[in-house]
Amino acid sequence: MSRTVKKGGRKSPLKNVYISSIYQNAGKTTVCLGIYKALRERKLKTAFMKPVGQETVNVDDHNIDKDSYLIGEVYKCRKRLKDMSPVTIGPGYTEKYIFHPEGAMLREKIQGAFKKMARGKDVIIIEGTGHSGVGSVIDLSNATVAASLGSKVIIVSEGGIGKSIDEIMLNKALFDMQNVEILGVIVNKVLPEKYERVKKALTQGLRNKGIRLLGVIPLDPLLISPTIGQVMNLLKMELLSGQGSLNRRVKNAIVAAMEPYNMVHHINTSGTLVITSGDRVDNIMAAVTAHLVTQSKSHQISGIILTGGLTPNDKVVDMLKKSKIPVLLSPDDTFTVATKVEHLICKIQKTDKDKILEAYQLVKRYVDIDAILAAA
User: Fold this and answer.
1) pTM for the model
2) Of 7, 203, 286, 370, which residue is least crowded by CB atoms under 10 Å?
3) Of 272, 274, 242, which is closest to residue 258 (Cα–Cα)?
4) Rg of the chain taking only CA atoms, in angstroms
5) Tens-place pLDDT, residues 27-60
């Protein structure tokens, strides 16, 4: 499907780039945020859309995909949110669809939104949903949508060598079936200590398969660090104190089930989240003391979670409030809370200005934007 845009009195082909991945949460949105800004800095008129969204927010009585909303807010293009997010899938929709298919109508809706978004643009970035087959149940797999829009695809993978190449080839196979061209691959979240070795092996390994490596992005702790406020909201916890400090980032978490003199040795980095039973006053006091006596922010904790539905006595609560440390309450036991925190996935939000800037800096430094533009 050929698209052209008029530029400087002549018609130039619209560069139409579809960002897919090997699975959910591989870093597509991070890549889209960075590429979008990089293109704008090159004075290219850029549009964004996510044809099929699963996680939504309600904006003006419309369900809008969260990633489209994020891009719209960050880059001031939210006036076109309905076209940026033409199809959203709510609970129960897939089962309903199975008995009443409407694939042609959905594809027509997506294509109509695409035409509107692409009008007058030099580049359009299209973000997929998960791996190449996601959406097949409603006849809108990433491969099907990319084919219907005439897109070229970038596959985002996570760090590794053998497993990454295997999964890239598996995803590529479905795009091949739809005659969708693979622009290349961006590998994300590579451990810094393995970066050079992984990059070298992936460059050659993908070249052996006829696939271009467009970038290798190292794992950045900031991008996987939620704020204590985000932990509270996502895990539906109650706030006991520290309302004004909920923007502190959680960089690591410890379970304070040992004796206090052992626990304090684990509070050795900035942004430690202490998880302890609400009746362990000794460990609560040790955490607060370690936080207050340090002469630098490098050893300050990000917050405390009191578990078991237990709250210390009024004097301890008063001390916690005066410390201004965010303290959250959970009815769950300590192990359950620690497990939830460990597996917490917190997508970039519009208030995460530090993460948004970091996403751009990573893409600018590690992704070959010029190669993408040349091949798109």
Assistant:
1) 0.88
2) 370
3) 274
4) 23
5) 999 999 999 999 999 999 999 999 999 888 888 8
